[in-house]
Design a protein that fits this description.
With about 500 residues, the chain is of the alpha+beta class. It has four domains: about 5-180, 2-Layer Sandwich (Formiminotransferase-cyclodeaminase, Chain B, domain 1); about 185-270, Alpha-Beta Plaits (2-Layer Sandwich), CATH 3.30.70; about 270-305, no CATH class; about 310-485, Formiminotetrahydrofolate cyclodeaminase monomer, up-and-down helical bundle (Four Helix Bundle (Hemerythrin (Met), subunit A), Up-down Bundle). Helices cover about 55% and strands about 15% of the residues. It has helices spanning about 15-30, 55-70, 100-120, 140, 145-155, 195-205, 240-255, 270-280, 295-300, 310-320, 325-350, 350-385, 390-425, 430-460, 465-485; strands spanning about 5, 10, 35-40, 45-55, 90-95, 125, 175-180, 185-190, 215-220, 225-235, 260-265. Strands 1, 2, 3, 4, 5, 6 and 7 form a seven-stranded mixed sheet that branches. It has a four-stranded antiparallel sheet with strand order 9-10-8-11. The radius of gyration is 23 Å and the shape is globular.
Length: about 500
């Protein structure tokens, strides 16, 4: 199958195995879909299915499961520690092979329209599928639970569902449907019964409170196990790897005199994330994913579907008469190269403490090469919408927001690369001093290039609250760049 999409719906049922089996059967009975995993948690009162298939088949399987959940799950009798707004709480689509994020956005809309029309459940699109900036984070849709969502739907025109009725379904509530990158659900269990302590640790760890980037966290009670848990979503394991999350939770627990009982994964995890975790735990300086036995066997026996793009491919794509990839992607690639020079310099200079972070920065910037292309295409798609379309301005605002955040991230990461390279260059051996200087120079250039796009897109953004936040980050990055140029 050349085109694959993953779907990971979460259902508000973690105690009735017959209901879980009915959900499994609904998915497994759909042609063109493979059920990969299922899990059930009584304390969270929640089940998660993971399946993949062709775009058309994946929507059909998801709808069948949502229909079963709507028929069998009654939120009026539901008690669980996990936040929720629906019998089917959330349905994300994830591009896997031969598909794009925009493809998954369209799948989310197809499913949402059908759920609203045939099942009478209000649907809110989130993440990349969201039509409004304040609907993008899933936690914003869930804020205040069912009562909070019901209040917003009745009192705020900005919270009219994307599809379906204007009021919650009597027993099934509402549903969030979206498109997102791969996500890792990761929990750390604590030998304590004090849920307030788990919540305190969650606040320290999560990104929204100044903790780890790309980490969402809540503290919950596991009454059946006589302990508490920090339940987390890692939205980008390249930005913050699993070991980094575990170590911070453990450190925060130790501060409070609490012992870690263990950790657990919910659902599936990319092999790259586990390889990354193993390399970090063992402090392997030269580990590569090609060293994984199963990867080598798969490559040798099955063959790779598509060879990885080469540098010449990238140069040809940039030079082609198309708008993408362009300036932002080039800036990200240059920043990744600068970080790569830093990894080399840190290894040769015996500064192993800098190797891991520079490697992470290189991977993050390389990921942003493609991300910049995707957000630019989303922006162009939004501008192509008919001017009379009621969602056009919202779509442009959302796309502009993403098209501004990506180059801003390129700038900030490139600044960090430059700062690390400057530190490495001081006292470096003469044999690598020039290489680190080259890296520092191009890292600064990448950061400056990213700012050009950021400023351009900020000037056309009408969301003033967002503009003010971005301007603060621009000012901070500009100040950092001025200092770096003086040191260069």
């Amino acid at each position: 199958m050349d085109r694959l999409v993953e779907c990971v719906p979460n259902f508000s049922e973690g105690q009735d195995r017959e209901t879980l089996q009915a959900l499994i059967d609904a998915v497994a009975s759909t042609a063109g879909v493979a059920l990969l995993d299922h899990s059930m948690d009584a304390d969270h009162h929640r089940s998660v299915l993971t399946f993949c298939g062709s775009p058309d088949a994946i929507v059909e399987a998801a709808f069948r499961a949502v229909r079963i959940a709507t028929e069998l799950i009654d939120l009026r009798r539901h008690v669980g520690v996990h936040p929720r707004i629906g019998a089917t709480d959330v349905v994300p689509f994830v591009p896997i092979r031969g598909t794009t994020m925009q493809d998954c956005v369209q799948l989310a809309k197809q499913l949402g329209e059908r759920v609203g029309r045939e099942l009478g459940v209000p649907v809110f699109l989130y993440e990349h599928a969201a039509g409004r900036a304040d609907h993008v984070p899933l936690e914003a849709v869930r804020r205040g639970g069912l009562d909070g969502l019901a209040f917003r739907m009745e009192s705020d025109p900005g919270w009219i569902p994307d599809f379906g009725p204007l009021r919650l379904h009597q027993s099934a509530g509402a549903i969030a449907i979206g498109a997102r990158p791969p996500l890792i659900a990761y929990n750390v269990n604590l030998r304590s019964t004090e849920v307030d302590q788990a919540r305190s640790i969650a606040r320290a760890v999560r990104h929204s409170n100044g903790g780890l980037p790309s980490v969402k966290a809540i503290g919950v009670e596991l009454s059946s196990r006589g302990m508490v848990q920090v339940a987390m979503n890692l939205t980008d394991y390249l930005v913050t790897p699993i070991p980094t999350v575990f170590q911070m939770v453990k450190a925060e627990a130790t501060k409070r005199g609490i012992e870690v009982a263990g950790s657990e994964l919910v659902g599936l995890v990319p092999q790259a994330a586990l390889s990354q975790a193993a390399a970090a735990s063992l402090q392997l300086d030269r580990f590569d994913s090609s060293q994984v036995l199963e990867t080598k066997i798969a490559d040798a026996m099955l063959g790779k579907k598509e060879p990885a793009p080469t540098l010449s491919d990238f140069l040809a794509a940039v030079a082609d008469a198309k708008p993408t990839p362009a300036g932002g992607s080039v800036a990200a690639f240059v920043g990744a190269l600068a970080a790569g020079l830093g990894v080399m310099g840190a290894r040769l200079g015996g500064q192993s403490d800098r190797v891991q972070r520079l490697h992470e920065l290189s991977q993050q910037l390389y990921r942003l090469v493609q991300a910049d292309t995707e957000v630019y295409r989303e922006l162009m798609d939004a501008y192509k919408m008919p001017k009379q379309h009621p969602d056009r301005l919202h779509a442009i605002s959302i796309a502009l927001q993403r098209a501004t955040k990506v180059p801003l991230e390129i700038t900030e990461l490139s600044c960090e690369v430059a700062q690390l390279l400057h530190t490495l260059r001081d006292g470096a051996k003469s044999t690598i001093h020039s290489d680190l200087t080259v890296g520092l120079t191009i890292a600064i250039a990448a950061a400056q290039a990213g700012l050009v796009t950021v400023r351009t897109n900020t000037n056309t953004q009408h969301n003033q609250q967002l503009v003010e936040t971005i301007r603060l980050r621009i000012a901070k990055a500009t100040e950092s760049l001025e200092e770096l140029k003086m040191m260069c």
